[in-house]
Prior knowledge:
Elements (H helix, E strand, L loop, with lengths): L2 E5 L4 E4 L2 E4 L5 E5 L5 E3 L12 H14 L4 H17 L4 H12 L3 H23 L9
Antiparallel strand pairs: 1-4, 2-3, 2-5
Amino acid sequence: MPLRINLKPNERLIINGAAIRNGDRATSLLIENPCKFLRESEIIPESEADTACKQICVTLQLIYLADHPREADDLLVRQSTELLKAMPTSAPYLVAIQDELAAGQYHRALKVGRELVAYERSLLDRLETPPDAASPS
Length: 137
């Protein structure tokens, strides 16, 4: 069954490594055979990977798009080990990512990676939010 992808004006899409940009109008594409694709909204550019979890996501993107290259595997292990030391509560996400990769479910691993980024963001938001000052009675 074909997959319909609706693209906004000027939205980017990567299909099997080819970067595609839509024109100035919305359009739909039908993908009729299995392929690897990422929408612009799903991609974390390497230049924006300013946290450990975002860096893991960039590595997962590479693994997904490049047929699981060995160098990226090694990088992911190093990144995961460092993250686990700094943020032990990330363990369930890292285990889920490894489970999905082991099962060959690279896109699902990437989805868990994005959940990890959201979890990291929630932790950082808590650290940045000052506690409410007690109001005098």
